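Any chance you'd type out a single protein's sequence alongside its tokenized fold?
>
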Amino acid sequence: MEAENQLDSEHRIVLRERTAPPSYWLTRFMILRLLGVIYAVGFLVAINQIVPLIGENGLLPIGIYLKQVSEALGSAGAGFVRLPSVFWPWHSDTALLTVSWVGFVLSCIVVAGFANAPLLTVLWFLYMSIVHAGQDWYGYGWEIQLTETGFLAIFLCPLLDMRPFPGRAPPMPIIVLFRWLIFRIMLGSGLIKFRGDEIWRNGTALYYHFETQPIPGPLSRWFHFLPRAALKIGVWFNFLAELVAPWFIFWPRLARHIAGSVIVLLQVVLILSGNLSFLNWLTILPALACFDDGFWSRLLPRVLVRKAEAAADRAEPSKPMLTTAWLVAAIVALLSIQPVLNMLSPGQMMNASFDPLDLVNTYGAFGTVGQERTNVVFEGTADDTTDGKATWKPYIYKDLPVLLNEPPPQIAPYQPHLDWQMWFAAMSTPDQYPWTYNLVWKLLHNDPGAVSLFAGNPFPVKPPRFIRAELYSYKFAKPDNAQGLYWTRERLGDWIPALSVDDTRLVKFLEGEGWVR
């Protein structure tokens, strides 16, 4: 009897697909659940790291930053207009943690299946507040991508009804805006690669990417040593997903489903091959708008399918909800002009926002691929000398490679902000990342916040006498090597020479930045 009911249900689904416009109840359900997960991860990262990063005694204190913005723009009010954030009137460590915890709890409510417009508005503004105050630590493309995605999600939901399957259908204009978002994300990424680096155009970019990406994952070495032919195929598949598939997102059902599947498959491969924070999970989210309930009904549990069908049968149209959706669509259309012009420009920028609320942005990733991996390793010594007789102990990052026999962990969608910034810093100089001198100062004092950003403290009893930062070139060791190594490395030289608390130049620099009083 149950099998007959299931067949009858499937027959109704097929009949509905042929005779009625596609519905998106299950699509909305999937988008909101994934959004809740990503928000929860983002706020959890803030709970664990935001105080040592931008707290009152952080590496880049928020109070100093907001004061600088106020002075540059003329007033705190002007600063708020340019960088809206809840932290303008209140930015103590308590404020940072309160916002992070409130955001995390509300995110878990969304994950559990409950969401409406006010709840998602609060989540959107709280996370945007962190992004706008986060400085270097939150300057990544996926941060503004999350604010744009979170803004659109507000209008998927009714005003008050929080049920997983509420009494109002998802507004079609918002579904289309999610498709427009994934179109810009993918096409922008493809164009920046094609324009940016010869090794993308000649198909050799993946010879280097898995080794030189910010934080490799457990399978990165396996991908790196794949046959060169397979790696070239990977580049062409990347271009298929980023330069070809986006154009079919707005096509009829079959083409749209194929395009969405290709895009999602690329993101799954990227998830398996590295640790790119929650970028790939977040990119999957708007791609889900390519699929309708007919697609999801074949993948999701029957109980969810039946609930979606029941909601669709009892749903009542909402003119205010649809009118609001069209108004949002008009706003997004106007704000899309600059991002589209940027995407078409030979001087295309990656990951830029053109409005204070980050409502419509331009995206791109890995426009160039480095062909050598450099890592900065902070080291300390308790000796009174820095010559060849000194014993130096490394500060092990939580996830960035240091030890040669340690395979990379799987951490994404979680993001260790210090590790990410040190990947960028290793390709530059400490003067371009001046907060690294503040980090050295804090390590010289065994500052609990700074030390917490590493996997452990090599000087748990007494602070080191000197701290230095060494620059190394890292390469994957071949699998099954006799030494059991995962990495090999070569020292390139000092990145920051040995410094102590008695170094007057260091103290003077930190005082000038307001980091030491």
